[in-house]
TrEMBL record:
Belongs to the LysR transcriptional regulatory family. This is LysR family transcriptional regulator. PROSITE patterns: HTH_LYSR (PS50931). The keyword Transmembrane helix does not apply. Keywords: DNA-binding, Transcription, Transcription regulation. It comes from the Bacteria.
Amino acid sequence: MKSINWRGVDLNLLVAFSALMEHRSVTRAADKLSIGQSAMSHNLSRLRLLLGDPLFERQGHLMVPTARAIDLAPTVDTILAMITNQVLQPEQFVPDDYTGTFTIGLTDYAELLFAPALFDTLQQLAPQCHLSFCNIDRHNYLNAFSDRHVDIVIGSMHTNSKELESQYLYTEDHVCLFDSAATGLTAPVSLARYIMTPHALVSPDGVLCSGIDQQLADQGFQRHIALGSRNFLTIRHLLTGRNLICVVSRLMAQLDIFNDQLTQCPPPVDIADFDINLLWQRRNTDHPKLTWLRQIVKDTVTERVHTLRQP
């Protein structure tokens, strides 16, 4: 196979070839491209050298294409059309026609709250798409973009990474959740009763303590954590009929998928609110598909939060 001198391959040469094929004149081709006649003649010389063919021969006032030039013309036109329409022109994303996969990274919290609404919305707007929910946490979400090819991430993560962009979605607070009959507690719960009651803890890391324990220790108090689980669903089921109290996010407590009669009230300790953010790779900020996806996800999450917060 002949070795190709790629350093001599210039897209402008294909543009010059196309102009010469159209006008059959060095002068008129140069005028079309707004370059000098000498520059056009130089481009023709480079084309002849690159392709090993005269390409155009002068007959009177016309530059007549050779058989090689005639053979090449459809291919050159196709290449230039592809570059114009698929590379240089902004890509249009058409949800109705999309048959690919949206991969969304979600924490356990975000998946439980938003997965059904996201599925319904995306199926309605992009009915041929595939949707993949990828479980992530604050330890692995950075690698999820490269290892699991997630398009976006929803969670309470904050990042200083130069590779990621983020958008604020909403702020979440906390409530105490308990079975009044099993615990004997009524709302509001006093600090003394809060400390005396065994605690269940939602712990993504499996660590049976949180910032609450340090706050209590600073005041000379200690609570008893009887149970920890990374899965909120497990904790929620265990609270019914048991002497346990748990601090959870307010929206999780208000999910309508449970048919229990648990009581919720503000905790008697100060617990910092947390922000839920949407994250994506900075280099893909302007990608049409992901621009569309981010807007749809933001709108869907905002509507779902509003619905859950209704009394």
